[in-house]
Amino acid sequence: MTASRCKLAPSILSADFARLGEQVREAEQAGADRIHIDVMDGHFVPNISIGVPIVHSLRPVTRLPLEVHLMISEPDRYIEDFVRAGADSLLVHVEGHVHLHRTVQRIRHLGKKAGVVLNPATPVGMLEEILGDVDLVLVMTVNPGFGGQAFIASMVPKIRRVRELIDRGRPGVELEIDGGVDVATLPGALAAGAEVFVAGSAIFGAKEGVSAAMQALQKAALRGT
Ligand code: DX5
Ligand code: ZN
User: Fold this and answer.
1) Domain with 45 in it: what CATH number?
2) Residue 48 Cα, ligand 2 centroid: separation in angstroms?
3) How confident is the model at residue 205 (pLDDT cuts 50, 70, 90)?
4) Domain limits at 153?
5) Beta strands in the chain (DSSP E)
């Protein structure tokens, strides 16, 4: 695996919302692959974050794809709204989602990329029947809901198992991880087969600034190859 497979997806959850446009532009200039937008409803996860208007406001600010991570109950109700606002990909959790296949089809019919997300306790086997219909799999490496949590180390073998499943059945599907990614945890996850890394506090919360933080993550990636 080469370092070029390490794509960074800065999560704006840890950004300074008063300077959001500026911070996203900085991430783009520093080589971000996409912008990760965490939508929480205080129901599916115990926190409330942001929604459609932020996607709409960010659309003219960056050329990067806007990736929307839906941590909400009944995601189907909002898919069209997020697409209209400018989302390029929508990530939905498999947990508690009875009609996941329909949701994924709907996202793709709208011409957008569809991703499925696994919480830490959700088995890899949940992917089997849906893998053929998605563009991306996101493995949560923390329990969703908050930025700044510690990476759950036992997710590394899980990443490896998802990588094997993807390589066996759908080699084009992207494997992304989300939560607790920093210079210490990124190399092991990269070595296990993750290729896209969501990072919030390690990028927007970094004392040294967005650009230096992203460079540090890219440098760390060299240790995982
Ligand atoms: C957590 C979110 C993450 C969050 C990651 O529920 O899905 O995207 O922003 O934050 P860090 O990188 O600080 O763990
Ligand atoms: Zn996220």
Assistant:
1) 3.20.20.70
2) 13
3) very high
4) 3-224
5) 7-10, 35-40, 66-71, 89-93, 113-118, 136-140, 174-178, 196-199
Cα–Cα distance measured from residue 178 to residue 67, given in angstroms and rounded to the nearest whole number: 12
Spacing, Cα 197 to ligand 1 middle (Å): 10
- Six-digit token pair at 170? 């759908």
Query: Rounded to an integer, what distance in angstroms lies between the CA atom of residue 31 and that of residue 169?
Result: 30
33, 88, 135, 178: the catalytic one is: 178
Report pLDDT digits (tens) over 14-39: 999 999 999 999 999 999 999 999 99
* Ligand 1 mutation pick, 12, 13, 41, 185, max ligand atoms within 8 A of CB: 13
pLDDT digits (tens, 9 = 90+) for 96-143: 888 999 999 999 999 999 999 999 999 999 999 999 999 999 999 999
Count of structural domains within the chain? 1
Cβ–ligand 1 contact at 49 (below 6 Å): no
Say whether pLDDT at 1 is over 70. no
Position in ligand 1 atom list of the atom nearest CA 143: 6
